[in-house]
Structure formats: structure tokens, C-alpha cells
Amino acid sequence: MLLGIWYRPGVAEVDDFSALYEELSNYFSQVSGVLLLDDMSIHHKRWLRFSSGDSPAGAQLRALCDCRGLSQLVREPTRNDFLLDLVLTDVADTSVRVLPAIADHKAVRVNIPMTAIIETEVTSRVWQLKSANWAGLQQELEGFDWAMLEDGDAEQCANLFWEVLWICLVKHIPQKVVRCKRSSHPWLNSRCHEAIIRKNIAEGSDYESYKSAQASCDEVLRQEHAKYVEALKAKLSALPRCSKQWWRINRELLRRKSNIASIPPLRDGTNWILDAKAKADTFAETFASESKLAPELVDTSFSARQMLRCVNFCRFVPGVPDVCSRIWTHQKQLVLIKSPRLS
Q1: In terms of Cα–Cα distance, which of 326, 324, 301 is closest to 311?
Q2: 87-117 pLDDT, tens digit each
Q3: Alpha helices of 3-55 — where are they, by DSSP H?
Q4: Which residues contact 12 (CB under 8 A, 6 or more apart)?
Q5: Which of 69, 93, 118, 61 is nearest to 229 (CA)?
Q6: Is residue 273 part of a domain?
Q7: How far apart are CA 150 and CA 157, in angstroms?
Q8: Pairwise CA distance, residues 98 & 96, whole Å
Q9: Quick check: pTM over 0.70?
Q10: Which of 87, 174, 186, 322 has the fewest Cβ atoms within 10 Å of its own Cβ atom?
């Protein structure tokens, strides 16, 4: 991590940020995070809420942060009514707390998370549509006796239809199990792991051997991280900006971390849901509660045969056939949409 302490008395009207730009450029590719803090004595009303005005130094520092993806985390005054002590970082989940004053400035406490490498293996079963027997599926569906759908209520007919369709799909479309690994540090490949192991083995040896292994490990990690970032940039340039994946990669490049979860934290009332299974259960419960049909007002069942008779009768009533046709089509679409097996 690159740590910078920058005290700026603010006596100059315009500051030269070229030295800071140069130092960040020299070390930026060698570190996994940047932390820049101290009394910077700048003012920028649109960026820093507690400012007396707008200064050229404030505009320059804002441009520097936008260029390097740094975020300013202090959100309250640190000297009288003004925010002068800043914390600039690109390390995700860093928190800041303003403490009581020491002399004429308030103390600022910075908590930087040093999380371990998290790896998860995701297993899913997928359809192999390219290897499907579409002719056999069509033939079996056409040869099935669908006359039984004319008896029973709508719920029974829908359940029967989906049971038959599901059996035919499983029979004619092969499936396979796909396993993929997701890591909070996706650039750590086999070369990185080997370098880390060599460094750990050299820990009990003499100082020169350990120092050499540590330097070699550090160099390997920097190289692989740089390759990963360049690959992301190349992939980003090939995607349209309207793509959801473009924004995901853009956030990953700016925050310089990879999230192993594709669904953000959810909130169920007052509780935050972070576990993948708990998120899936919450989605299922929500969808189930929103997909309930209104209770029937009559006790008699209304079969598909009766629906067809009603539609045939309404053909002879002026103005009604179009309405009944739309209702019949809409009902069939709703049955398709509400299928739990193909969603």
C-alpha cells in the first residue's frame, strides 16, 4: 500500500501538483491501494461540503482524485466550521471517524480493511441447447394426448402441462454441471501461488534468501496484477457503454477490487442479507408472495372446455369477440410466465 502524508499550509494561491502526479505515477502500478491524508487546506464547495469557497488548489486536487480513482471519505468539519483534513483513498470499504479536537484540529481515525483472499466455487446445472434433439422433442409433444386438458380446473391443467413438458425437456435436452471459481483477487493465478509458496518456505532461512524470495514474489504479484488490469481495459474498450458488464468492469477498475458476489447485499426489514443462499430464499419468498392468485369467488370449477364454449358463443355477440380473444391470449401468456420450472 502507498501511504502519503501531505501537509499544505495554503499560503500559495496556486499549487503545482506535478510532483504529486509524478510520484503517484511511479508507484501506482506497484501497490494494491493508495492512502493520501493530512491537513491540505483546500476549499471546493461542490466537492467538499464544508468549504468557504472554491480555490484553484481544490479544483486541481479534485481533478487528481478523478484521474486516479481516489475517494474523499471525511464528511464533517475538522477545523472550526471547515473541512481541511482530508482522507483520499481507493481502498474499498475504508471507513473514517472524526474524533475530538487536538489543538485547533480534530483527529481523524482511518480504518483500512485487510481482508484475506476469499475464493468460492459456484456449481450450476446448465442446458446444452446445441446438442438438443429438437425433432424428437417436437414429435413427442405432438404425439401426446392433450385431450385430458379439457377436464379439470385451470390449475390442474397447468400443472399437468408443465409436468409433461418438463419430462420431455429433460429427455431430449442434455444437461451438464459447470463449476467455476470466483475470487476476491482474480489476478492470483498459479504463478502467483508458486511465488507465495517460495516466499513462505524461505521465511526460516537466512535473511538474504528470504529478502530475495520476498522481492521475487512482490515482482510476480505486480506483473500479474498489471496484466489483469490491462486485460480488463481491453475487454472494457470492446464493450458498449450501455452494457451492464461495462459498468461492472469500470467499477472494478476504479475500486481496484473484485466482488465475488453478483448480487449486492439485500435488506429484509431491519436485517441485512449477505449470504448467497439467504438471498436466494428471500427472492423466492418475495416472488411467491407476489405471484399468489386472488381467491375464487365461486365454488364451481371452470374448465378449459367451458372457456372454449364461452368464447365460441361470444363470437356471435357484436364487439365481444376481440375482447374475449385478447383475454384468452393473455391468460395463456400468464400461465407461461408463471412457470417456476422454466424461469
Answers
A1: 324
A2: 999 887 889 999 998 888 899 999 988 777 7
A3: 18-27
A4: 57
A5: 69
A6: no
A7: 8
A8: 7
A9: no
A10: 322
